[in-house]
Amino acid sequence: MEKISRNQENFIIMTVIYDELTDYTAGNSNFRNVNEIISQITDIPLAEHSNYVQNMISNVLLHYGEIVSAFQPHLRDWIWDRLPLLTRAVLLMSYAHFYFVEKIDKRIVINVAVELAKKYIEEKQAKFINAILDEVIQ
After folding, report:
1. Handedness of CA 82, 88, 92, 94 (dihedral sign)
2. Residue 121 and residue 11: Cα distance in Å, rounded?
3. What single DSSP character describes residue 46?
4. How far apart are CA 107 and CA 113, in angstroms?
5. CA nearest 37: which of 29, 26, 45?
6. Per-residue pLDDT averaged across 73-98, rounded?
7. Nearest by Cα to 17 from 72, 68, 92, 79
8. How many Å apart are CA 63 and CA 122, to the nearest integer?
9. Do 55 and 101 form a contact (C-beta atoms < 8 A)?
10. pTM for this prediction
11. Which residue from 13, 55, 58, 74 has the highest number of Cβ atoms inside 10 Å of its Cβ?
12. How far is CA 101 from CA 10, 11, 74, 81, in A?
């Protein structure tokens, strides 16, 4: 298997989480099989992706309720379900990265999130993501 960059892995993770959130908000009460989602996004099966990709996706789906609960008190004038789906995806993966996958400096996690947001979401959301992650990740 050809090795892909961490940036490419983060894009895949964000896309998988976004796809799941799309189905979830459309009324599907359960998350789909991660293998099925991965196969729709990339030609590489989940088992052939790095442990990082597998751990990130699994932990976001496994701890979804816990992660959302961690953000709720910090949203102030926002409601989780009204945040744009890509913003939610980035927040979910950032939280899972810091608390469940790798214990790394929170500035790195926030930087990755902001870079994804700048590339795929509007600038205003990137600033929001930066601010909320700075409060939530300790």
Report:
1. negative
2. 13
3. G
4. 10
5. 45
6. 95
7. 92
8. 27
9. yes
10. 0.88
11. 13
12. 13, 16, 22, 25
The helix/strand count (H/E) of the chain reads as 7, 0
- Cα 73–chain centre separation: 19
Q: Is the pLDDT of residue 1 over 60?
A: no
Q: Which two tokens stand for residue 6?
A: 């961490």
- Residue among 23, 18, 26 nearest 60 (CA): 18
Query: With bands split at pLDDT 50, 70 and 90, how would you rate the model's confidence at 50?
Result: confident
CA distances for 50 relative to 12, 18, 26, 31, 77, angstroms: 12, 19, 30, 21, 38
Span of 2-6, 10-14, 61-65, 71-75 with lowest mean pLDDT: 2-6
**What DSSP state is assigned to residue 74?**
G
